[in-house]
Amino acid sequence: MGRSPCCDENGLKKGPWTPEEDQKLMEYIQKHGHGSWRALPKLAGLNRCGKSCRLRWTNYLRPDIKRGKFTQEEEQTILRFHSVLGNKWSAIAKHLPGRTDNEIKNFWNTHLKKKLIQMGFDPMTHRPRTDFFSALPQLIALANLRQLVEQRPWDDHAARLKVEAVQAAKLQCLQNLIQSAASIATSPSSSSINTIPDLEQIGLLSPPQMSSLSSLPSPSFLESISGQDIVAGQLPDIQIPSSFFEQPTCNDANQNLDFTPKSSVEGENGTPKTLLLSENSLPPLTDFPISNLGDACSASSCDGSGIQFPSWPELFDEQFLSEFV
DNA sequence: AAGAATCCCAACCGCAAGTTG
DNA sequence: GCAACTTGCGGTTGGGATTCT
Question: How far: A294 CA to B7 C1' (Å)?
Fold first, then answer.
């Protein structure tokens, strides 16, 4: 399987295409079809390799290419197919008329992937993130919150919110632990799609904290479709959490959420600002002001420099654990 | 206003499957 | 069956555009 030597040839132009080159390529293909891409450049009078011409044609010049922003429907289609097909961009592109694999790939890498990460979902599995380090922002915020609580007198309302916040954060952490354990316990041959126990069913978690999870495809469903050919129009309806399409940007979502102990938590008149954390607004795993930390800190790359981690006993005291066992 | 940082996407690279002689 | 060649694909990058400080 030798590699094509065409791109190694010297003297062939690289880089952005000029309008003149585009014109030559378009005219030639419209007249003769592309035929052999290797032979095309010479025949069309272009100082490019065939590969470059093919790419330019398929990704940009083809007349049926749809340009402009992706619609919400297209976005949802990409998410659905990606959850099943993974990074098979050309396969996904077949279900989006007028969109190229390159365009979809770019859109995924620049928008959708980030969006999923910000919401606390693993972009590859489309499941809530299970790695410990993805929960670090929450752990750190939790520790900070606790520190803050212990240092400062609170009124009743704030104290109640504190308890809620701590419980919610603990729930998230516990959930991650359970999921990790479950993933390990389940089949070693599992595909990229993880299986997790239905936490609601086993009574560990209850809505609304788990509302985003409950709309995800069930493990049995995912198992049932894995290995099957996906036929256009027959893809089962994988539910992306409805909040995905309503979710404001990370920064927007965080406008009212700041758990870091800093002077700005105190209002102008010296009274503490209200921490807006309701039962229904538990932030996604990575939706904290220190966002990106979860993403940047993979288990292999995070050295934790400059960050003081709370110890586990601090996070999960006996009383808390006994509540859920 | 200007420099820095970040975003975005067209295009490139290299691998592997498919085709041909 | 084998080697040479072609095509398609997915990952990555360079640099212009945009936003932030």
Answer: 20
